[in-house]
Amino acid sequence: MPFIDSKVSVSISEEQEKELKTRLGQAIALIPGKSESWLMTGFEDNYHLYFRGDNSQPIAFVEVKVFGGENPTAFDALTGEICKIFNEVLGVAPDHIYVKYEAVKNWGWNGGNF
User: Fold this and answer.
1) What are phi and psi of 11, to 5 degrees?
2) Is there a smaller number of Cβ atoms within 10 Å at the N or the C end of the chain?
3) How many Å apart are CA 106 and CA 114, to the nearest integer?
4) What is the pTM assigned to this prediction?
5) What is the maximum span of the chain, computed from C-alpha positions, in angstroms?
6) Whole-angstrom distance, CA of residue 92 vs CA of residue 86
7) Contact of 28 with 35, CB cutoff 8 Å
8) Domains recognised in the chain with CATH numbers
């Protein structure tokens, strides 16, 4: 039950959104037990972000929430892949991307909790 939510300072075309969704769906498998079949994604483009007090370059803030425990090794691998994806698809430099992870113990779906 992963959720990847992103806020980016640039516009995202429909084509770019589909590519991001597809590539993030593949990347989530870097976390053992996670797959695209349960992945939810969200995208907020043209978000007002400043990094180091500046907004002249593309910026992204990506949140990854996963049901279960933390896996720092897998999270590190996923951060590398997320930075690569956002750089290649939207032109956001890896040093202008923050990725936040949250392991969630209580997760609801379909009228109940896991």
Assistant:
1) -75, 145
2) C
3) 7
4) 0.95
5) 44
6) 6
7) yes
8) 3-108 (3.30.429.10)
